[in-house]
Amino acid sequence: MTTPTAAPRRVPKLGRERLAAVGFALPALVVLMALFVAPLAVLFAASMRGPDGPTLDHYGRLLGSATYLGVIWNSVKLALETTTIALIVGYPAAFAIGRARGALRSLLLASLFLPLAASVIVKAFAWTILLRSDGLVNLAMMALGLTQAPVRLIFTETALIAGSVNIFLPYMILPIYTVVAQFDRRLVEAAATLGASPVEAFLRVVVPLTLPGVIAGVALVFSLSVSAYVVPTLLIGERYQTLTTLIAKAYLLAQQPEFGAAAGVVLLLIAVVVVTLSARFGRPVRGRS
Amino acid sequence: MSARFAIAIAWTAAILAAAFLLLPLAVIAAASFSPTPVFDLPITGASLRWYGRIGSLDGFWPALGLSLMIACVATVVSLILGTVAAIAIAQGRMPGAEAISTALVAPLMLPGLVLGIALLNYFRALGLTATTTSLLLAHLIITLPYVARTMIAGLARFDFTLIEAARTLGCSWHQAILKVMVPALAPSYLTAALFSFLASFDNYPVSIFLTDARTKTLPIKMLQYIDEAPDPTIAALSTLILLATILLLFVSDRVVGLHRMAGTGE
After folding, report:
1. B65 near B77, Cβ under 8 Å?
2. Phi/psi class of residue A255: alpha, beta or left (left: φ > 0; alpha: ψ in -120 to 50)?
3. A119 touches chain B (CB under 8 A)
4. CATH dotted code for A66-288
């Protein structure tokens, strides 16, 4: 009964079996190389394509102009604001969902999954209806006496952030919820027994233990909102450029694929930096658990 | 005292978040029954006429058909490729298994729009101009990471010695895999298929660079309708898609459980 069955697996196997395993992974790897690595290489090449050989002119045009730096900053600012608000709302919300049981938990999880599964276009469209001058938000504000006349909401930064938080909030709550659901509540009691005040227990036990979820959520929400395209297109429109709308314009309207490729590489680098940083910071805590 | 205060804050945040998240969905559903072409508030009545108009939206049926076809094909191919790769990774007999599993999930971290323009440049360089083929290939790389992530996690929990045990008990390889592995992995399959299908069906930022004037997927067509004439027909269409999604989620909850899909692995 107690025969150790797991041990033989670690023993180096025959070359033939290793070969078979590589053969199993091969089709997926070929797809990955052909449809992910190679296209990215082509994109890098395109971003440096000049009339006479490779050039960094497109990057220079992008990073050397106050207008385009402003566009990059618009993207980063939107992502920072979205992430901050999502964290402030999502962290406590994830705790409550983690504590919920039975039907209530199903209901709360459904309220995360349903919007997540619903089309971004549908949700952004709903916000254009909500934020119209005769829309629900304005009617509610007037009923509450917050404003006399309808306020212009759609095509403002407020609209953009409201929509962005609305669409990306579940990506903050879910990773934190995952950590909270596995969280051993006796640890907090132990901290209290050892003389920690509730605030101390929270800061020294709860925060470090939930940090991996927070880091995962922050990385996800930041990288998703910095690369959001449908949200700015529908909720703020032409006046306000982000990196994504700039890229789309360069390809679809201006026919400047080299410039668009350079902007795409910059967007890619922003996302890669955030994901790499989160992996770096997320690892030590995760390794211990 | 302060602990109770913290719990009160947590519950308030959860309820507000749930209401905030569901608000746009409720608005879309309400707008779809609007009796007038503009969504007047307060609501004065209900009408189903917008639902009747969905079918006559310009180019609706081809777009729906194309989106469904691409989502199904991409999901099925990704499920096969992803599962086979995940088996190789989970058995740990392969050099660099860890790196390979990271690489397979990596496209998830790439901004969709960047993948879109990268594929556009790439397909142009290759001389591939067939729109449907480009879209299919693009959606394969959109869906594969979702499948790989779920199947690698699912197979990491699967005990491969069970297959050997079934063999010892007289099952053939076929039977062992069908009777042991397939049922144990069914929840992972369903989760992977659901995420993968929705990721493809809803994709805008990649598809927009690969479609042409005649071949458009449903999300692209929908954004075009919203730009051109945002009347309740779009809301009716959105509501129907939403109902289909609810149905999918309901079935998934029955079969797998939403808390397990959230990744707690309980």
Report:
1. no
2. left
3. yes
4. 1.10.3720.10
- The minimal CB distance from A43 to the residues B2, B95, B121 is found for B121
Residue-wise pLDDT tens digits, A190-244: 888 888 887 788 888 888 888 989 999 999 999 999 999 999 988 888 888 999 9
Q: Which of B2, B3, B13 sits opposite A89 (nearest CB)?
A: B13
**CA–CA separation, A237 and A235 (whole Å):** 6
CB spacing of A35 vs B137 below 8 angstroms: yes
Residues 6+ apart with CB under 8 A from A262: A47, A48, A58, A59, A61, A62
Region label for A132, one of left (φ > 0), alpha (ψ between -120 and 50) or beta (otherwise): beta
The 10s digit of each residue's pLDDT in B87-106 is: 888 877 677 788 888 889 88
Chain segment B188-224, per-residue pLDDT in tens = 888 899 889 999 999 999 999 999 888 999 999 999 9
Owning domain of residue B197? 60-215
Does any domain span residue B245?
A: no
Residue B252 in any domain: the answer is: no
In a domain, B191, yes or no: yes
pLDDT digits (tens, 9 = 90+) for A122-173: 898 899 888 887 778 888 888 888 888 888 887 888 889 999 999 999 999 9
Stretch 6-65 of chain A: residues touching chain B, C-beta under 8 Å: 6, 9-10, 13, 17-18, 20-25, 27-29, 31-32, 35-36, 38-40, 42-43, 46
B2 domain residue, yes or no: no
